[in-house]
Each structure stands twice: as C-alpha cells, then as structure tokens.
Fold each of these.
Amino acid sequence: RERLPLGYAPASWDALSAHLASRGATREEVADSGLVTVKEGGSGYYDRFRGRVIFPIVDAQGRLVAFGGRTLGDDKPKYLNSPETAVYTKGNHLYGLYHARDAIRRAGFAILVEGYLDVVIPFQAGVENLVASLGTALTEAQARLLKRFMARPQVIVNYDPDTAGQQATTRSFEVLLAQGFKINVLQLPDGLDPDEFVRERGADAYRELLRTTVPYLDYVVDQAMER
C-alpha cells in the first residue's frame, strides 16, 4: 500500500466535496481541483469519482497531481481520469514512474504498458520496472521523462494485443526512436494483457517471456505480413 497506493471513492454524489468543504476548501478550489463535475448551468457540482477503485497519479518527484478511477460494477466509462488542471497535463506524466524508477535503473530498461492494473498487478508480484502512458498515445514529453532514468534508454513495449493496442505500439516507435531508445516488443500469448497474464500464469512466466522480445523492426515486418 505504501509503495504503490490505491484508494476507494464511495458511491456518493457529495462525500468528497463535502469533506473538502469541511476542511476549508472554497467552492472555486474544489471546482478547479478536477475532483468534481460542475453541473450544467453552473448551479453546483457533484463528485467526479463515485463507487470506484482509485489510482493516485504522482509526478516523478512523488507529488500527487491527479487520479484515475475504475468502476467496480457496470458503470460507464470503465475507467475515469482526472481532467487536465493547473498541476496536471496527462501527456507529461507516466503512471507508476515514481515507484518504478529504482527498478528501471537496476534493470536498465522499462516496460511500457497501457493501463493502471497492467502496472499494479505485475508490481505486486515483484516485476517493478513498469510504467503506463495514462490512456494517451505516448508523447514526446513522456519519452523524455522516461529517458532520464536510464543511462542507455531501452524500453520493451507491452501494450494490449487488441487492434487499438497494436496501433498504439506502432505509434510509440516514432516517439521513442526520436529520443534514442532501443525498442523491443513483447506480445503475450492468447490475447492476454500484462494484468491478466501475471494473474493467470505468474510473475516468473512473465519474466521468462521478457527474454523472448523482438526488435521493433521485426514487429513491424510481422504486422505487415499478417495484413
């Protein structure tokens, strides 16, 4: 919990906003925080995150800047993120980086994944050099940030195996190459993402597959041949 914290937002329309108000936050501060949604017409607001597991997002110095939330039921959207605020621009941060940076330095490479749980579940199982791109296409700022934690920038891209994940994988190459990264790609079997794979087959099996990654050019050729 202390190393990669999680939280919970109760299924209430005003639990958080009422708490913040009781601690002295003004109406304007609460609205600017991104933690509430302003009602149409500006007549009030309600809590943005309700009935969700919460993933705190911190910057590279460990300062809290935003939140992500995953529903526990069938609510849509499945994932909900803080909007951009005065302290948070999503394209400037990587989820998990603050907690993964020592492991990245030790390993000499980072594993780039898509979602919060793709970081949390392997991390919990002892694979700690993972970061996620916060639901956005990898940005130049994110690549520069990641590069700071490696003497020789190397990354294994392990996005989800669906069509969107494959497209995101290919798009990431240009950004990473521009920053001088050596790039390999890991495709997990049976259509599994990192979260699912580690839960089903364990961290040791995941580590073994990290030895079987392919250079990005081989991935590009294979994808072209499949098409």
Amino acid sequence: MSFLELAIKNLTRHKIRNCLTLIGIISAVTALYAILSFNKSFMRNLYVELNKTGIHFMVVPAGCPHEVASLVLHGSVIPKFLPETIESAIREKLGEGIEVISPILVYQLPNISKQRIDLIYGIEMENIKNLKPWWTIKGRLPEKNDEILVGYEIAEHDNLKTGQLYSLDNHGSYKVVGIIEKTSSKDDAFVFLPLKEAQRLLNKEKAITAIGIKLKEVSKINDIVDYLSKEIPGIQIVTINQILMSIASLAASARILSLSIVTIAILISTISVLNVFLMTLFERTQEIGMMRAIGASKSHVFRIIIEEAIMLTTIGGLTGILISLVLSSTIERFVKSFMPYVPQGKMIVFDPLLAISCFIFTIFLGILAGFYPAYRAMKVSPIEAIKG
C-alpha cells in the first residue's frame, strides 16, 4: 500500500471529525478568495468607471466628498442647490478653456398615483454623451420638453416601451422616447428630463445641484481648480483624482476589516486541523509504534501525517475557491450591503493567479498545522507504543 493510499484510509476513519474540519477550511478559503477577488476588482472597476465619466471635475455645494462621488458616478439626491449665478460665473472665469460645461439637477418628486417617489435627473440632453458615455440607449434622447428618457428599472417595473406615455402624477404625462439599457447603477431608477423642464417641475428656475466640467487642456486642471475655489465662494470643487482617493480610503477601511475577519477564520481553521491531527496521533500511537517495529522509518511516519494534512487542506482549498465562484453573486450582494459605494461590474471573478495563490497558501497552512503532530509521531518509541 502506498503512502497516499494509507493517508486516504486514515482520513476516512473519522469521517464526521474530518468533515467538520473540512467545513471550517472550506468556509475560510471561500471567504479569503471572495474578499481578495472583491478588493482587486473594486479598484480595477473603479478606475474604469472614473475614466468613463467624460469630465475632469465637478462643482457642487460645499459638503461631503463621499456624497459628491456618488453624484458624479451614479447620481444621488443631494438636498442642496448651487447659487443661480455659479454657471455664468464659471463660464466668465474660464472662458475658452472649457470644452464642456453641464449643469445637473437631481431631486425627488412624489408620485401619489403610483404610490412612490420619482427620482428626477435634469440635464441638458446634448451633454449626456459627455457625462454618461457608457450608456446604451434604446430609442433616442429627448428633444422636446414633453419627452423623457427612463432608466432600466423604471421601464421594467412599468412595462414601458418607447412611444408610450409616462405620468408624473399631477405634473403631466411625458412621451418615453428612450430607455437606458441596464447599467446596474442608480441610473436605472431615474427619469431623465431636459434641464429646463426639470427646473419647471421643481418650481425653481435655474436650480442646479452640480456642474460637470471638461477642460480643453487637462494639464491646467490644478491651476483652474485653485483659481475657481478662490474666486467663487460657496462651492466645492472635486476632481476625479480626489473622488478616487476618497472612495479608495473607504474601500481600504472595509478591506482591513474584512481581511481581519478572514484572518481569524483562517487561524481557527489552522488550529482545528492541528487539533484533529493531535487527537489522531494519540489514538494511533500503538499503530505508529507497530509501523516503526516492522520497518517504517521516522521519515515514513512524518510523511504520512503531512500527506494527510495536505490532502485535507487541498480538498478544502479547491472546494472553497469553487464555492466562492458559484456563490459570487450572493457574496457580492452581502459585501455591497456594508459598503457606501461599489463601482459597476462583476466583483468576484475567476483569477488564475489569485486562485493559485490561495491554493498554495492553503497547502502551506496544511503543512504548518500538520508539522507538529508529524514531528510528535516521528518521536514515538516503537517499544513503548506497543507496550502502552
């Protein structure tokens, strides 16, 4: 009988004990791979999403930069308005240096007949391609004040098709001329109107919550931001890099917490493997002594114990990685529920390098957990073991 066959036979002796240990290893590896994959995809998808914005910086009411990040990337309702003169002041200060300037108005509008709140996004429609270049639209952009563009969720919930009417309660009905294909972001839940019409519905002429700006010469962005901050009071200017740093800081805090939890789970699993093999060693003392008596060397005994530990952690490692991929959507939803912002895109994906790293790390833990029991087994005296 080979060493591998002997190791397999020994593992099957205590099925319940080894299965419970295996469950602990699988849980720890599942969490480890899922968290590492999520963190890696988070930063990659964040860079992609920021590059899609098509603007260099946002001018918003002074406030929290995390709220600003949400507004820039997905559109969030911020209950503050910029002064009416801000847009014209910016145009005057920057002049020909502006390539695109796009005022935005975002707010909530009660829809009593449908028993819900409509999320209104007012924007000059010709600027949508600059602000939302990743959108795919079925139909076209609104060209008149009585035409609207709706998000995927709105269209699905109300079973809307292009050409149909959408009622904003007592504010009137609008013709749906375009439907945004699914973006998996807050954009899916918005009703997009021409800016002037959105301002009319709110009864606030010239009201805006943000201004997106794209410069002709991006190399001058720092000088321009400093200049505007000094020249125009009551505003906050947030560049894409600042948004990135702000979100990255939040992600780092969540990453440290999640990795701490995973580390504890891995430590518990390692101790569990160590405990199982120590218990097995005490139960198999006479058996090991008999093996030594009939010619097995210390290295043979050591090898058997280590192979058992490696087999257990190998099964747990491979199964854990597979489960994290199979349950990726569920795990993503769970992790996202604890984070203030998550970029679009799949977070937990198969990464060969990451999978191999997790697998090797799991085997290393198996060797580490099995080393002491194997060392103890190697020291068993054949004569004393048989007598005992």
